Amino acid sequence: MKARVHIMLKNGVLDPQGEAVRHALGTLGFDGVHGVRQGKVIELDLADGTTEATVKDMCEKLLANTVIESYTIELA
């Protein structure tokens, strides 16, 4: 079983990496980009029978800083 966790900074949290990407895109001539939010994706290869609740627990305890980040889980 595989799980994919998408982690993004919450709205209102300053994203300096996203701002650097937005600026660099403007420098390269891509003037229509008004904002960039950068996040991360974590792919987990899990034992069969692992529940979404277990993956959520992993996120809450280690994978995401829930004070400033939100996350979504995809199971496949």
Describe the structure.
The chain is an alpha+beta fold and 76 residues long. It has one domain (2-75): Mth169, Chain: A, CATH 3.30.1280.10. The protein is built from two helices and three strands; from the N terminus they run E-H-E-H-E. The protein has helices at 16-27, 52-63; strands spanning 2-9, 39-45, 69-75. A three-stranded antiparallel sheet has the order 2-1-3, with helices on one face. It is elongated. The protein starts with a strand and ends with a strand.
Name its key features.
76 residues; Mth169, Chain: A; 3-stranded antiparallel β-sheet; 29% strand; ligase; cytoplasm; PurS
Record the SSE blueprint.
Layout: E1 2-9, H1 16-27, E2 39-45, H2 52-63, E3 69-75
Antiparallel strand pairs: 1-2, 1-3
Series of H and E elements: EHEHE
Total helices: the number is: 2
Count of individual beta strands = 3
- Provide the number of structural domains: 1
Shape descriptor: elongated
Percentage of residues in strands: 25-35%
Alpha-carbon distance between the termini? 6 Å
Supply the CATH class: Alpha Beta
The class by helix and strand makeup works out as alpha+beta
Rg estimate, integer Å: 16 Å
Q: What is the fourth-level CATH superfamily?
A: Phosphoribosylformylglycinamidine synthase subunit PurS
Helix content: 25-40%
Strand order of the largest sheet: 2-1-3
CATH architecture: 2-Layer Sandwich
CATH topology: Mth169, Chain: A
Q: Which residues form runs of ≥5 with pLDDT under 50?
A: none
Rounded average pLDDT: 97
Q: How is the biggest beta sheet arranged?
A: 3 strands, antiparallel
Organism: Litoreibacter janthinus
Protein name: Phosphoribosylformylglycinamidine synthase subunit PurS
Keywords: ATP-binding, Cytoplasm, Ligase, Nucleotide-binding, Purine biosynthesis
GO cellular component, one term: cytoplasm
